[in-house]
């Protein structure tokens, strides 16, 4: 055999038959085609979460469209695999995502609380245009003038709080009152302040309880308030995370009633027995004013923003209200002492939950607000070890995304403490959903502002791309999904929460923006729904200057 015969011989050394030759030529032509037109592959393949290729037919509608026709985001994503994406492109990709979400809201849910993007209709919670109000300051910050103008027109002509409807005090405070106040500050337009006064005063009946601890629900039309049907308890996070907004409302209106009501709650909780090293239980009774169900401690649902608002009120008031700072510092020490653990084998630091003295190694995605809050405290002179803890927890929150097959975090992660077991993070079937929550991108934003470490931007960019891959609905909007572990069927749930526009996209935009003065963290505090409120000009007392 001559050496060149090798090109056309099979392993046995026999000559190829005609059929084999045709196959070989077809394969050769196919490879040449791919090399000349790489985009051809997009019609046949989509990359899975770790770069392996899966057949497009196996993917969901959501996946394939995210890679397909829509243009900007898919292009940005493809180029991300080849070269670093510039900050300006990332910022533009967030604007594009917002416009896509807004398109769905406008088409199918205009003026209603939430978009149901798959069924192309809306969901109602309070009937107050929740998504529209939550998104106002995001549009302003993103520079989406046309969208802002149409939303403002709706607020001007359609929004009425004179409605026989029960609203949740906490949710309507952080989303509606907070959203209107921050939009007033950003725009200077008194329309938003007038609306803020209107909703603020309608929420006040909630505080008429035997203990002054507010009820969870208020009828804003009738002026009556009540607890949930099954209990007279309120949630601790809910009654202690309305203070930034009501204090600001008092400052702006020069009417102390709002500030007095919420600070009465703060003082009461400050003195209350039943804390464990500064950690609070999850429920408080509106009759007795005492903590109930006292054995459980978490930094997640029902307690989370209590801790956040201790620090942020201290900042809002110009760092003068020392009891807030003391409670915050004590609580962080309480976290270290009672809740902090490390996983095996990778030593990821997490904040577990305590239940009757026993540590449950699970953490809500909600807890991922904590790295950002700790970093904010350290930036404002609190101990450097707060920043060290923030760095560690940020890594864990990142891993809660990176280790999932969709690259999106579950609602709750369970952590491995056994040295002989393989995986650091496990997810129970009931906890596999993702609601488009903001906490991790919120913390990434703080971490990037304070460290300038570009890895935080890269982590945020991955999250945005995975939202686009698995939660974007072609006709407009994004949807919560039921299973972050199944990229082939992420199980869309047909709901776009208002905080996706109010918080998630806003924090992503600020994370990618090179303009550190855009909502400077030395001038504003974000409420727990990502609505920036100004830090008060300094005075000698802890009261807002206009009231002191
Ligand atoms: C938002 O309404 C707020 O961030 C709140 O503090 C927690 N839950 C959602 C977002 O996850």
Automatic annotation (TrEMBL):
It catalyses: N(4)-(alpha-D-Man-(1->2)-alpha-D-Man-(1->2)-alpha-D-Man-(1->3)-[alpha-D-Man-(1->3)-[alpha-D-Man-(1->2)-alpha-D-Man-(1->6)]-alpha-D-Man-(1->6)]-beta-D-Man-(1->4)-beta-D-GlcNAc-(1->4)-beta-D-GlcNAc)-L-asparaginyl-[protein] (N-glucan mannose isomer 8A1,2,3B1,3) + 3 H2O = N(4)-(alpha-D-Man-(1->3)-[alpha-D-Man-(1->3)-[alpha-D-Man-(1->6)]-alpha-D-Man-(1->6)]-beta-D-Man-(1->4)-beta-D-GlcNAc-(1->4)-beta-D-GlcNAc)-L-asparaginyl-[protein] (N-glucan mannose isomer 5A1,2) + 3 beta-D-mannose; N(4)-(alpha-D-Man-(1->2)-alpha-D-Man-(1->2)-alpha-D-Man-(1->3)-[alpha-D-Man-(1->2)-alpha-D-Man-(1->3)-[alpha-D-Man-(1->2)-alpha-D-Man-(1->6)]-alpha-D-Man-(1->6)]-beta-D-Man-(1->4)-beta-D-GlcNAc-(1->4)-beta-D-GlcNAc)-L-asparaginyl-[protein] (N-glucan mannose isomer 9A1,2,3B1,2,3) + 4 H2O = N(4)-(alpha-D-Man-(1->3)-[alpha-D-Man-(1->3)-[alpha-D-Man-(1->6)]-alpha-D-Man-(1->6)]-beta-D-Man-(1->4)-beta-D-GlcNAc-(1->4)-beta-D-GlcNAc)-L-asparaginyl-[protein] (N-glucan mannose isomer 5A1,2) + 4 beta-D-mannose. Its EC number is 3.2.1.-. The chain crosses the membrane at residues 21-40. Its cofactor is Ca(2+). SUPFAM superfamilies: Seven-hairpin glycosidases. It is found in: Endoplasmic reticulum membrane. Ca(2+) binds at residue 528. Belongs to the glycosyl hydrolase 47 family. This is alpha-1,2-Mannosidase. It comes from Cyprinus carpio carpio.
């Amino acid at each position: 055999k001559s050496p060149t015969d090798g090109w056309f011989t099979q392993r046995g050394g026999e000559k190829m038959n005609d059929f084999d030759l045709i196959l070989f030529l077809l394969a050769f032509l196919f490879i040449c085609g791919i090399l000349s037109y790489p985009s051809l592959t997009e019609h046949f393949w989509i990359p899975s979460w770790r770069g392996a290729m899966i057949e497009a037919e196996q993917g969901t509608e959501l996946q394939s469209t995210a890679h397909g026709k829509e243009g900007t985001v898919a292009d940005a994503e493809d180029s991300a695999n080849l070269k670093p994406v510039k900050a300006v492109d990332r910022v533009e990709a967030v604007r594009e995502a917002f416009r896509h979400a807004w398109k769905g809201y406008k088409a199918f849910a205009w003026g209603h609380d939430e978009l149901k993007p798959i069924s192309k209709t809306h969901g109602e919670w309070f009937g107050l245009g929740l998504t529209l109000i939550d998104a106002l300051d995001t549009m302003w910050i993103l520079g989406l003038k046309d969208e802002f103008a149409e939303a403002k027109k709706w607020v001007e002509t359609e929004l009425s709080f004179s409605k026989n409807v029960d609203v949740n005090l906490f949710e309507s405070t952080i989303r509606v009152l907070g959203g209107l106040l921050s939009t007033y500050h950003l725009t200077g337009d008194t329309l938003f302040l007038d609306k803020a006064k209107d909703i603020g005063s309608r929420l006040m009946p909630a505080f008429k309880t035997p203990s002054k601890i507010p009820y969870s629900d208020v009828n804003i039309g009738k002026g009556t308030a009540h607890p949930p049907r099954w209990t007279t308890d309120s949630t601790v996070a809910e009654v202690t995370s309305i203070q930034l907004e009501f204090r600001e409302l008092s400052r702006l209106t020069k009417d102390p009633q709002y500030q007095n009501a919420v600070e009465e709650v703060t003082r009461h909780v400050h003195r209350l027995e039943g804390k464990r090293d500064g950690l609070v239980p999850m429920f408080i009774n509106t009759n007795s004013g005492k903590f109930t169900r006292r054995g459980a401690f978490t930094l997640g649902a029902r307690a989370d923003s209590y801790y956040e608002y201790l620090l942020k009120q201290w900042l809002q008031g110009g760092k003068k209200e020392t009891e807030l700072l003391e409670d915050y510092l004590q609580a962080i020490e309480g976290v270290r002492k009672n809740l902090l653990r490390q996983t095996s084998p990778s030593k990821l630091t997490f904040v577990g939950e305590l239940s009757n003295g026993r540590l449950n190694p699970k953490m809500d995605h909600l807890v991922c607000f904590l790295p950002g809050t700790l970093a904010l405290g350290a930036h404002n002179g609190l101990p450097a070890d707060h920043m060290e803890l923030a760095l560690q927890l940020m890594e864990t929150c990142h891993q809660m995304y990176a280790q999932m097959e969709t690259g999106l975090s579950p609602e709750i992660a369970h952590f491995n403490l056994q040295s002989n077991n393989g995986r650091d993070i496990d997810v129970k079937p009931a906890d596999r959903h993702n609601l488009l929550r903001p906490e991790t991108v919120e913390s990434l934003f703080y971490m990037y502002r304070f460290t300038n470490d570009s890895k935080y931007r890269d982590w945020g960019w991955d999250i945005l791309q995975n939202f686009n891959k698995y939660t974007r609905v072609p006709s407009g909007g994004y949807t919560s999904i039921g299973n972050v572990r199944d990229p082939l069927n992420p199980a869309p749930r047909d709901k776009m929460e208002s905080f996706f526009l109010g918080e998630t996209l806003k924090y992503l935009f600020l994370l990618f923006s090179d303009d550190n003065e855009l909502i400077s963290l030395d001038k504003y505090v974000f409420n727990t729904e990502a609505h920036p409120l100004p830090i008060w000009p300094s005075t000698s007392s802890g009261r807002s200057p206009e009231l002191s």
